[in-house]
Amino acid sequence: MIFRDIWLDIKAVQERDPAARSALEVFLLYQGVHALIWHRFAHWFYKHHMLFIARLISQIARFFTLIEIHPGAQLGRGILIDHGCGVVIGETTIVGDNCTIYQGVTLGGGRRNPEGQAPSHLGQQRHRGSRSQDPGFL
Predict the structure, then answer these.
(1) 79 by DSSP, 3-state: which?
(2) Which has the closest alpha carbon to 76: 115, 126, 30?
């Protein structure tokens, strides 16, 4: 499951970024893909209630990629984080499949509403532009 999601993220970059030449290049050189790979493993630990390990992995990923994704964030498949420096995705965020997120975007940061819905929910096949912030509902 994790490896299939990683492969779909790599393919998404190849499809939507004209500068991407090969899957190997994307895997080795794209910081957005690196952040998503780290997140997929951190999220597994988070779901299995190993919260310290999950947070440790997310902090290591943030140090190396400059992209902060909370391990509790729910990310779909085929996500492209393009020029991702400064991207922050909070714990309560839900990002659908095939979404594109550009540099400096902040998603989440709020609490769930009384109905239990996440305050930041990016639907399927959406784009969030550079420096946009979404602490609430979309």
Answers:
(1) coil
(2) 126
